[in-house]
Design goal:
CATH superfamily of the largest domain: Response regulator
Helix content: 40-55%
Number of strands: 6
CATH class of the largest domain: Alpha Beta
Strand content: 5-15%
Oligomer: single chain
Radius of gyration: 18 Å
Number of domains: 2
Number of helices: 10
Length: 218
C-alpha cells in the first residue's frame, strides 16, 4: 500500500483526535499535521505538501471552501476531502466547483472515511452516499421537472459565503475585513450584492438565510 501523508483541518480538537484515531488503523498512512483554521490549513499545506487534506467546511476565520480553493489551485497534486455535517445540494455543487475530490458527511465518517481517503489516494472521486443521491436527485429535478418548483435559487460565491458566515456570527464589517484580509469597502460591496441577490432586507434576514442554508449553526 502506498504511503499517504494527510493533513487534518477542523476547529474542534476532539474531532481531530477522532479522525486521527480512525486514520491510524492504516499502517502506511501518516497524519503529518493538524490545523484549526482555514489560514492554518493553507499555510500547512503549502509547507508540507500532503497527499490529502481532510478539511472541515465550517471554520472560525472563513469557510473551508476558501481554503480548499486556494490549496487546489496552488497544490494540484494534493487531493481535498471535505467534511460537513450538512446534507445540502448547493454545498455538494460548491465542493466540486472549488476543486475538492471528495465529500463525506461527519455523521458517516466512521463508516466512510477510510474508504474515502483510500479512494482519493488513487486520485478518484468519493462522495458520501447520501450526498451522491442528493446530487442525482437534484439533476433529475432540474432537467425533468420531477422536483416540482423549478425556480432556480441564487448561489453565493465562496467569498460571498465567507462574508455571510462572519456577518451572521455578529462580526462588524471591519472585523470581517480583518478576518478575510480584504478592505471594509470590499466587504460592504459583497454584503450589498448578497442582499440584492437573495432579496434580503436586514441583517436579521441574512442570519435567517445563513441558518437555513447551513452556513452557520443556530
Amino acid at each position: 500500500m502506498k504511503a499517504v501523508r494527510i493533513l487534518i483541518v477542523d476547529d474542534h480538537e476532539i474531532v481531530r483526535r477522532g479522525l486521527r484515531a480512525l486514520l491510524s488503523s492504516r499502517s502506511k498512512w501518516e497524519v503529518v499535521a493538524e490545523a484549526a483554521t482555514g489560514r492554518e490549513a493553507v499555510e500547512s499545506a503549502r509547507r508540507l505538501k500532503p497527499d490529502i487534506v481532510i478539511l472541515d467546511i465550517t471554520m472560525p476565520d472563513s469557510n473551508g471552501l476558501d481554503a480548499a480553493r486556494i490549496i487546489s489551485r496552488e497544490l494540484p497534486k494534493t487531493e481535498i476531502l471535505i467534511l460537513t455535517m450538512h446534507e445540502s445540494l448547493q454545498l455538494a455543487r460548491e465542493v466540486i466547483n472549488v476543486g475538492a475530490r471528495g465529500c463525506v458527511l461527519k455523521s458517516d465518517a466512521e463508516s466512510e472515511l477510510l474508504t474515502a481517503v483510500e479512494t482519493l489516494s488513487q486520485h478518484r472521486t468519493y462522495i458520501s452516499k447520501r450526498l451522491a443521491e442528493m446530487v442525482v436527485e437534484g439533476f433529475f429535478d432540474k432537467t425533468t421537472g420531477l422536483g416540482g418548483d423549478q425556480t432556480p435559487r441564487p448561489e453565493l460565491t465562496s467569498r460571498e459565503r465567507s462574508v455571510v458566515q462572519l456577518l451572521a456570527k455578529g462580526k462588524s464589517n471591519k472585523e470581517v475585513a480583518q478576518a478575510l484580509g480584504i478592505s471594509v469597502k470590499t466587504v460592504e460591496t459583497h454584503r450589498g450584492h448578497v442582499m440584492r441577490k437573495l432579496n434580503l432586507h436586514s441583517i436579521t434576514d441574512l442570519v435567517h438565510y445563513a441558518i437555513r442554508s447551513h452556513i452557520v449553526e443556530p
